[in-house]
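::Amino acid chain::
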Amino acid sequence: MVQVPMVEGERRCLPPPKAVQDRGASGGRGEARPGAKQPSQPSGRGGAGASSASDVRNDLGIPAGMVSLTEEQQFALSRAYGNEDSDQESVSSGETFPSEELSINTDSSVSSFDARSTLGHLESDEEAARAEKLQTSRERMEVKSDLDILRLMELSPQEVLAKPQKKLKEEDSPKQKSDIVKKKVRELRSKNTQKDARFRTDVFTVRLALREARRNMTSDNFATLVNFLIRSLKHIEHATLGIMFCWHVDNPSFRHATGVESINPYVRQLLEQMGFVCLRERYWVWPEKHLNMGDSGCWGRREVKSTCAGRDPSRIVDMVELFTRCQRNLRRARLGT
């Protein structure tokens, strides 16, 4: 037996037994021994498998007795067998299931499917359920049974730590602005026909404003207001030229005496009856001392009414005298004399 040298990339296999070679040469039609099982033929090829294989080998230029094939020859054989199988399968499938019978010819056109109309109510139901769950979680949960404990374990940390909403009673609920009736400060008018001989100007409305402030303020706050007004009036009365002593709404002393958050409405009424004028809601001035009423171009002159009592030079003297008497009466009432 001649030994053929190996070629790079060549594969060899042992030759089959002689009986198998004889049966393969006869096309698989040799007589089988009794009791021996016949090899099963692959479906779809029948008895023409050997002849078709030899034809393919001849077409590819592979000798019939050659048992060792190179990689190129193996690839060509696998490709040839693969094309043959695919052609047979395509033919059989085409004969069994024609595409014309499977397709449906129709002239009607189907509109595009819109899932919003179908699933819209589902989304709204989910949102309503989510809102209801969030609302129930915000309420204070009372643990009374094991079911409440299981429900508490299913809640998220945000739902557990959320502060419960306070339920407003009907009487505590916020009312509309139209329903709220604020207590208005009554307008003070002078009804005294006889003038007080101790004062040069009419002080009747100032006394009414003092009475209203006393009724709506505590004793300590009212005493603080009276003391503050006496000191300020004396500073304004004896102020020299070039020195302007007025009040600013953000002045700590003024806010402490008239109201911390905002000025007391009864205190504001008292200041206006005395003769003070608030310019641009910032400065409280005495027109006769702080404004030049004879100058047409004076700043703030137009905001002073013609009936303002602070335009009279004798008004500030009467106010000092009136509040001095009020301070004396408060001291006597405190001492009980």
